[in-house]
Amino acid sequence: MSKAVRRLRALPLRSRLALLVAAAVAFAVAAVSVSCWFVVRGKLYAEIDDKLDNVRVTLDAIRDTLADCRQTPGDARAFGPPTQVYAELVSADGTYCVFDTSAGAVRVTAADARIAARNPGDTPSFRDGKDSDGKAVRTMTRPLGGGIALVVALPLEDTEGTLNELALLLLAVSGIGVVGAGAAGLAVARAGLRPVDKLTEAVEHVARTEDLTIRIPVEDDSEDEIARLSRSFNSMTSALASSRDLQQQLIADAGHELRTPLTSLRTNIELLTRSEETGRPLPEADRTALLASVKAQMTELAALIGDLQELSRPDTAQHGGLAPVIPFHDAVESALRRARLRGPELTITADVRPWYVRAEPAALERAVVNVLDNAVKFSPAGGTVDVRLDGGVLTVRDHGPGIPENELPYVFDRFWRSPGARALPGSGLGLSIVARTVQQAGGEVTLTPAEGGGTVVTIRLPGAATPPPEAP
């Protein structure tokens, strides 16, 4: 059995479908054919039983047969037309007498003798039997009273011939039906699996060439499983192509951003090395400035690498289940403490009310810190930064130079920096991290110009003012 299953699984899908269709049709045709044969057989036997039940024997014939009891038909039948009816009498002790006009003698059984002992009004009994020559007959035994029963039979030769011909006909029709069903199943399988063949060719093409631009044509109004699979494949290749493009863009942008600090760092280190090798030390002020520049560049590289790691971190909601429920207001308070240390000359006002959200704690705090860092960076000395969290909406307003309208669509792009901010430290990834974190938490972030100058950053996160009840 296991070998047959393995061989079946080794066949192509269309061949397996054709075999399954042929097997199903064969089973159905066999069931119908067998049922048809038995129904016809029952009808034919019922007609024979009706004929036997309608046979009537006169009382004079019974007396004549009893007076001259013989176990073979008389010679008188040779002078008349041949009869098809077997007729004889059987007694309770098993002896029997054959009518002169009988077609032959029927083999009497013990059951016939028991029926002879019954009352004359009892229901007759029907059975299959044999005559003295071994031919098949259909027999009826009817009790007549007085320990005698009438045995009447008809030959089954014609009936069996009809049933055999019907069996051959049904067998031929079944064979033709099974073969036709197999051919039709193969044709239907080929037609139905043609989209699967196209999908297979597309997958093999992608695996061979890594070409993610291939698409499978799908009819717009088609909603079957194959169409859904094709649409899913097209969506997957589109997502993979977009992801690869973004990855390549990220690598290119990261390489470009890393090139500047690395070049500057290399230049400063080579200058220090040359100074040591030539034995002509740099002036103390120049050396101190050079080391400070190296330190600043290393800090910039570390921040850039940290930002790249944050952007490359997988989406927890997609790979690790639901994020935990955390207090948003605690993340804001922690970010405020860090912002006040970085901008001690600024006035940072805060109105923070409780709000609980589902997000990664470290990522959410980093996003708020990035927003506050930008506010501190672009605020003038002695300026004010207003922070408010109410009903899941966090607003951070600074009083800096603001962002021109034509630059607002690009503020959340990776590595994008406005012309006025390129002289300031930063990698251009801060707001990209903010947008990614807020999106993963199911919220949205916007950046708009503020009235009177400055910028307003608004973060909206779904949640509740009270924490959810703990599971028992």
Summarize the structure.
By secondary structure, this protein is an alpha+beta fold.
Radius of gyration: 50 Å
Task: State the helical fraction.
Answer: 40-55%
Order of helices and strands: HHHEEHEEEHHHHHEHEEHEEHEEE
Shape: rod-shaped
Annotated CATH topology of the domain at 321-464: Heat Shock Protein 90
Mean pLDDT across every amino acid position: 78
How many helices? The count is 12
Describe the structure.
- This protein is an alpha+beta fold and 472 residues long.
- Among the domains are: 72-156, Beta-Lactamase (2-Layer Sandwich); 225-312, Helix Hairpins, CATH 1.10.287; 321-464, Heat Shock Protein 90 (2-Layer Sandwich).
- 53% of the residues lie in helices and 15% in strands.
- It contains twelve helices and 13 strands.
- Helix 2 packs antiparallel against helix 5.
- The two termini are 51 Å apart.
Keywords summarizing the entry:
472 residues, alpha+beta, Beta-Lactamase, Helix Hairpins, Heat Shock Protein 90, five-stranded mixed sheet, 12 helices
Layout of secondary structure:
Blueprint: H1 2-10, H2 13-53, H3 59-67, E1 86-91, E2 96-98, H4 110-116, E3 125-130, E4 136-145, E5 148-155, H5 157-192, H6 194-209, H7 225-278, H8 284-312, H9 316-319, E6 325-327, H10 328-342, E7 347-352, E8 356-358, H11 361-378, E9 384-390, E10 393-397, H12 430-440, E11 444-449, E12 455-460, E13 463-464
Parallel strand pairs: 7-9
Antiparallel strand pairs: 1-2, 1-5, 3-4, 4-5, 6-8, 8-13, 9-10, 10-12, 11-12
